[in-house]
Specification:
acyltransferase; Hexapep; five-stranded parallel β-sheet; 4 helices; globular; alpha/beta; Hexapeptide_acetyltransf; seven-stranded mixed β-sheet; O-acetyltransferase activity
């Protein structure tokens, strides 16, 4: 099994594998080009995003600078807005639904490392778990989403939250660690 196959299967893998290094170098070249575009160059931005990311829905609005590790494993739905300085460590699928708003300085981390140094040395340097962001979600500024987290549809995550576990649909959640504060209904 290749290191890439291990990475995508959620097993321990070596991130410094030559194939993975080449893939990350490709992504860096593309996002650096993207980050140099002007606001008036929307067709060029969409072309670069289409090459960089695994899939891109209609009407993407990704404000530079934008950073990712591979790009290939990011799936954007329709009408996604990503504000400045977003970082996505897409070592496995990171799925972002339709009509999602992502505030400035948001980070989505699908990668993790063993806590014990001996395990990092013996088992591999990284492990990855997918992230799924539902439809109509708002991640306010400076939110961090950790590996393996799913956020349900129509949910808002408050600014500065660290999301370490799944958050259900139709709620407002915030904090460190992030927790449900209340349900969101048409009345509130």
């Amino acid at each position: 099994m290749t290191e890439r196959e291990k990475m995508l299967a959620g097993e321990w893998y070596w991130a410094n594998d030559p194939e993975l290094l080449a893939m990350r170098a490709r992504a860096r070249e593309l996002f650096m080009r993207y980050n140099q575009t002007l606001n008036s160059e929307q067709p060029l931005r969409e072309e670069i995003l289409g090459t960089l990311l695994g899939s891109v829905g209609k009407n993407p609005d990704v404000q530079p600078p934008f950073y990712c590790d591979y790009g290939d494993y990011i799936q954007l739905g329709d009408t996604v807005f990503i504000n400045y300085n977003c970082t996505i460590l897409d070592y496995c699928p990171v799925t972002i639904g339709n009509n999602v708003l992502i505030g400035p300085n948001v980070s989505l981390y699908a990668a993790s490392h063993p806590l014990l140094a001996s395990h990092r040395i013996q088992k591999g340097s990284d492990i990855a778990k997918p992230i799924s962001i539902g439809n109509n979600v708002w991640l306010a500024g400076n939110v961090v989403v950790c590996p393996g987290v799913t956020i349900g549809d129509n949910t808002t995550i408050g600014a500065g939250s660290i999301v370490t576990r799944d958050i259900p649909a139709n709620v407002f959640a915030a904090g460190n660690p992030c927790r449900v504060i209340r349900e969101i209904t048409e009345e509130n």
